[in-house]
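With this grant's support, we have paired protein sequences with backbone structure tokens. One protein thus recorded is set out beneath this paragraph:

_____
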Amino acid sequence: LRERFCRHCAAGRLFGMEQQHLLELLRRTTVHGESNSALLIGPRGSGKSALLNHVLKDLREMEQVRENLLEVHLNGLLQTNDSVALKEITRQLQLENVVGDKVFVNVSSFKNTFPCYFSRWV
């Protein structure tokens, strides 16, 4: 892996087929609403985060995906159980004021965060 990072090559060649497979999986998930999962396993420093960040960058550039993409970043060292992880997800999606099936949000902050969704609802 060190050789791959040290050589000057395009990012697409750096990750190879792994990048294309993950990109297509996440694209189908966001565009078609498929319920897909991906598990990236590897030793520390093997490029898992770099691969994911590169694929997310490519996804953000796709217009179809950009309309449906919601990103939540979790840290396994901080979010150690489901309860803590769900609290962090609701915080990042600004859904802290959920009661039952109703969500109470600050409209101005929601409008600034999710302008494409807000314009559809109004």
